[in-house]
Amino acid sequence: MAQERSLRQPSSIVYVPLLGRCAKQTQWSFGLQLLRDFRARRGKDDLFICGSSIHACEKSGQWPQALALLQQLDCWTLEGNVVVHGSVLSAATHGQGSEWASATALLCALQDQEIQSNVIIYSSSITATSLGQKWQEALQIFYSARAAGAVNLIVYNAAISACERGSETGLESL
Predict the structure, then answer these.
(1) Which one-letter DSSP state was computed for residue 148?
(2) pTM (2 decimals)?
(3) Rounded alpha-carbon distances, angstroms, from residue 14 to 9, 10, 26, 72, 110
(4) Residue from 102, 169, 162 nearest 138 by CA
(5) Ramachandran category for residue 58: left, alpha or beta (phi over 0 → left; psi -120 to 50 → alpha)
(6) 78-101 pLDDT per residue, tens
(7) Element (H, E) at 103
């Protein structure tokens, strides 16, 4: 009986590869359907499934959907981790620049929650901010990354690109 029930209720082992395929093929809406299906069948929430759904939204450039899923984690009593937040911030880099304020707020929320940011978090935040023509804010994020020891070539390139978008004088600050 228990084995029969488990066959009717697929585990995350089935869903995660499907969601990965959704991300590769930028099928974010199907990824959200899979998330709803998982929640309906399993009757519980799973951070890997939600994170994989956010990743599908990220790869499709669907910032609003990725952010909405992140906000939904609280209702589902799940705590986001650095990977989930990184996917949401990366989705912001696919936008037209209007996401910079939300991306900066998300970075601040990470710091408030004491989730240690990494180079993906910082480079995505810098890029999202620079797309909003806010090179000074991008530099402030860069300085935070440097102080945290979370800089690499990608973070430097994001900061340089931000300065190039905004002002030549910003390059001197690096």
Answers:
(1) T
(2) 0.74
(3) 10, 6, 19, 22, 30
(4) 162
(5) alpha
(6) 777 888 888 888 888 876 667 788
(7) helix 100-112
